[in-house]
Structure formats: structure tokens, C-alpha cells
User: Fold Beta sliding clamp from Enterococcus devriesei.
Amino acid sequence: MKFTINRSRFIQELQTVQRAISTKTTIPILTGVKIELNQEGLNLTGSNADISIETFLAADDEKAELQINQTGTIVLQARFFSEIIRRLPENTFTLEVQENHQVLITSGAAHFTVNGLDADNYPHLPVVEEQNQLKLPVHMLTKLIGETVFSVSQHESRPILTGVHFTMSNGQLLAVATDSHRLSQRVVPIENSNNDFDIVIPGKSLVELSRSLSDEEAEVEISIMENQVLFKTPTMYFYSRLLEGNYPDTNRLIPSSFNTELTFSVPTFLAAIERASLLSHEGRNNIVRLAIADNSVILYGNSPEIGKVEEELVYEQVSGDPLEISFNPDYMKDALRAFGDMSIKIQFISAIRPFTLEPSEGDVSFIQLITPVRTN
Amino acid sequence: MKFTINRSRFIQELQTVQRAISTKTTIPILTGVKIELNQEGLNLTGSNADISIETFLAADDEKAELQINQTGTIVLQARFFSEIIRRLPENTFTLEVQENHQVLITSGAAHFTVNGLDADNYPHLPVVEEQNQLKLPVHMLTKLIGETVFSVSQHESRPILTGVHFTMSNGQLLAVATDSHRLSQRVVPIENSNNDFDIVIPGKSLVELSRSLSDEEAEVEISIMENQVLFKTPTMYFYSRLLEGNYPDTNRLIPSSFNTELTFSVPTFLAAIERASLLSHEGRNNIVRLAIADNSVILYGNSPEIGKVEEELVYEQVSGDPLEISFNPDYMKDALRAFGDMSIKIQFISAIRPFTLEPSEGDVSFIQLITPVRTN
Assistant:
């Protein structure tokens, strides 16, 4: 294998596959990036136990300035390789595989000779049977992930809760995440959906997927296999394993009747929550208290060592019964950030029942639920 | 005490004194910032075992919008206080000391009540006898620090080497730092110097001092006391303890005759050293090798696991005996960075004797010395 390529274009591709490469893996060859050159272009592959990423750089990509001298394949230790490429002196570099998997990297007067690994020993990526296909615009997929993935459990005690539950049925895609203290749910209408499915994708995979998708205009093609899911764009294949097991039924968790309703603008409420949580973070229980009355909404936070804060909140509308309720401000912060700059409503039943957040206008395609903390 | 002040102007002052405040101190009151308000303006003080910083914000500072309602003094836990101030909703805030050292902080609808400490228990700063005074432009002092402080020892085995040695005599200020593997030395002519002195200032103090000095045009007034040094600007007093003990005689270390001389531009040489050190960092000995011949200068780096690099360097001039010499590339990087974008010369005696770096033109007011590594 021998080729010359534009350095910064190559670094872009390398960064993408590096998301899948861990330095901590127990399988040495997986610390490497697989480089494969054929007449169509250059493929880079990175993989770990959970995800695999393969990028494709076409031979006629203008920015890549790719010159193919000889096709072939090699695996190079990813971290070093990337540091070397970053520090090369010229805008392009030449990579040539020599004897015994030695690789010569040349740029200007700098000559690196690094030890490569036989690409024959690199694990094969899952074979994709084209079934259960679904197409989504990239921006819709990344929004869906951003609105739900923060609610997945961070603990392995119930592994199934570390993923986001995707269900496709009746022309609707439902995404749900919960760590059993809070829940996020988004519904997206899907046109031309072929097959129904019910899968759980690890939250960490979705975070990496979101970061790897850059082209806001493009579409992602999603293929679901027995224990894998593949996200396909014109320049990238992103594989993730699926979580095994039954996801709990979350439908029954979302209440349908309420006694108190509060409408407000997200940014001002979020800023107040952030202030109150400064003190609650120091307390033994990380909680803040919200007191809702006919004509005032007051937020309280305190820490015995440091002090206390109280703030009268600016709201748009309040109705129903007066209420005092305590909750973890970090759950509230995550939930509010997922809405962004808009007006939302919170609906409460009582101080001990979960409450919901949704946009104050429009249909209920996005809902978040937080369980309060009992204080007595 | 009660005052109202512009939030961002106050945060600036707080950031400066926070450089002296450690959260790890065993003396609880030193985790606090001392706030003192009198008719002239507002003083903030932070202190730890090594340095103390006092800032002064004049009552007539326009950006501060200071309204003095009642003078007084209090100590507030610095980390929380600063986080609270940062998150307040309005451009100004009001701080009022209430009963039992409780402090009410108000901004818009947000009301914080935090526990303060009696300022009478805050340690007194050293009393400055106005002796051994010296005036330096800020830009000259920060340059002097930047050119030497990286060579101080990071180990406490010889505490005196963790400081920079400043000697004032014959109208010249000499600053020297060495960790016994490399040395940095700068000479600055001083006009109107009153007294000679010989002190060692901790490297860490100098780094914080450098960061605290912002006004490039201003002058710093330096006062030296028995075991303290004070750096005074119109808006800040910066105290540091001095290191006790005798600094080694470093004059005899700098050689005066050479057998090989190499002249080059710093940025290209630095980039090559950075490439070579990528591999040397992985080896057991962190060394690179420089081979100087009549008509070529080649830099080598290698790591048995990863690979090797060689690069023919672009130089301006080479003269004297051919030489192969090995050294720690990190020392070379630090030294080169201290020169910036200029042309410098390296002068060698032999592969086992320290070599020196200095600007290729001008007087020898700045010199750096690196001890090579014997490879056989």
C-alpha cells in the first residue's frame, strides 16, 4: 500500500473512527486503526466492544488530494499515528507499507518508520442483512438523542436502563430513556416505515453517534439486525451492539390528570435552578424546594454549612392547587436544557407523585417526567 | 458593611485574589476571601502559606459603580462566594453583613444568605518596611519570569532549587533558575538601583504573580524584607515568602569556549523536536539524538515499540567539529519556547558537556544551558 493525501482531510476521518477506539482494550489490535486502500478510495475503521465506525473517503474527494500508488491494507496504533500525523510539517503526507508491516510516513524532511499490524488479524465487522430499514434526517436523529439520552441510567445494576428504548409501530418511532428517577420520551412520525421493531441502544453508543454525525442535511439509514444496529450515511457506517433483555413498560408511568400547572420560559427558570443548586449540592440531600401559590412561585435551596437562597420566580401562568414540592435540581437542569429557549408547562399531581414537563404549545410529542423527593 | 457593585468588575478582582486561595489549606479562614470596605474603596485579600494578594478597587472606579452604604469587613468562603456571584441574575449585586456574620447577597429576585467569618480572625499581612526598593516595568518582569521559571526544580529534595535566584549588584539584576539538569539566566540593567540584594523567590509564586499582572504599561515596585518580597502595583499588593538557604554558585557552570556552533530559526527547530519527542516519550529514556556534520544536521528519535523518526533539519549556519549528542527533548522544547520566533545559536563543547543556547545576535543577556545525556 502506498498513497499520498491531504493531512487535514485525513485527520477529519481519523478523528471520527477514533471515537470507537479505546486505549484500554484488552485486545491489542483494537487499539489500532485499520487503513484500507482500494481504487474507490480510502476506508478507515475503528472498533471496540460496543461500537465500530467505518469511514469512506472517495478517491475523487477534491480536498483529500488522494494519490493512489498501490492499494492494500494495514493496522496502525491509533493514538500515536494520529499524534504523528498532526505534527507533520507539510500539508500532505505519504504513507507506504514496507516489509514486515513496517510503515514509512513521510512529510517534507520528516521520516517516521512505525510498526504496523497485519490487517488480516483485525476483527470482521458485522454483516448487514438489509432488513428493518428506516430513514431519518440527521438533524432529527441527533435531536432525538439529545432529548432522551441524558436520562439513561449510569449504573450497571440494571443494564437495560443504560440504553434508550426505540419502538417503531403504527408509523411512529418512540424513544424512551429512564434511570427510574426521571424519564424522557419523544415521539417522531415516520413516513414509509416498512417494519416494526423494538430495540434498546446503549446510551454511550448514541452519544458517540451524535458526535460523529456532522452533515446536518444528510439522511441516516438505520438497519437493525439480531444484536446490532447500523447507522449508515454516505461517508460513514456506525455499528452499535444492542442491549439484551426486556425494557420495562413505561407507558403507565406518565400521568394523565393534574392538580397544579405552572407555565414559564425555560432560560429564566433554568438560571434560578442553577443558582439554587449551588447550595443544594453542598447539602446531604441534593434537593431544592418549589413553593407554588396563587400569586407567587418561590424556589428555595440551602446547605447547613454555607447558607441558603430564595428566589421569587417570574412565570407566565399558574393554576390549580397550591403546592410545595422538593426535587433533585440536576434532573430539572437536564430536562430544561433539552427544551432549549421556549415556553414549557410543568404539571403536578401532589408533592409525592411524579410531575411532567412539556412544551406549553403544540402536540405532546416530547415529555419529561421527574420523581420528587419526599422531605418528611 | 453594605455596598452595591458592578458584578463583572467585582469578579475581576475576586479572580485575582483567588490565585492565593487554596481549598486544601488546613487553616479554615484561609479558604475565605477577606472583604474590607472603607470610604476609599473596596479591598479584597486572599492568602496561603506562600503568597498573599490584596487588591484595591477605588470608590471612584467608574466601571465598578460602587455605592457605599456602610463600611466594614467580613470573610466569605471564596469558592462558593465566587460561584454565587457568577450566577446572579443582574449586572449589579448588593452585599450586606447582618447579625452573627450572616451575609445577605441580593441581585434581582435572588436572595442568598451565606455564613461569613469574623475578619478579626484573618491573619495579618506582613508589614512592609520600605527598603531595598526596585522599580520594573510590568512587561519586563513578566518576560524575566517567563524566561527562567520553567527551569526551577519540581522536586523538594533541594528546596532552594524550586525558586528563581535574583541578584542585584553593579546596576544589574540577574535572574537564574536551575534544576541541575538545565539552567536559564537573564540579566537586566536597572537604572537608579539603591541597594544590592540576593534573594530566592519560589517558582510557583512567580507563576501566580505573572498571571496576576495584567496592565502591560504599568510599573511594579518591588520591596524586599527579611523573609518576604512585595510586588506593588497601583491596584494590587502581591506578597511572596522567600526561600531560605544558599543558592549554589551558577557562574562557573556556563562554559566560555566551544567546538561546534549551530545557528537556526527557533520555530522550525521546535517543530522538529516536537515530532521527535513523540517517539522518545515512549522509550525508556526520553532522549533524542542530534547529528551535526559539515553539511547536514539530522535529528533522530525512537521508541522500540512504536518506531523511529529521522529528520534533516534546515539550519542557518553550522561550524566547528562534527558532533553526535543526545538530550532530553522536553528541556529543549522549554528552552526554545522561551526564545520565541527568532534566530538562535547553540554552542557545544562535546557530547558529554553542557551546551548553551543564546540569541544569535545581540548581547548575551539571555542564556540557557542544557546537560546532554550520555548514551554509552
In short: The helical segments of chain B are 7-18, 78-87, 138-148, 203-212, 266-280, 329-339.
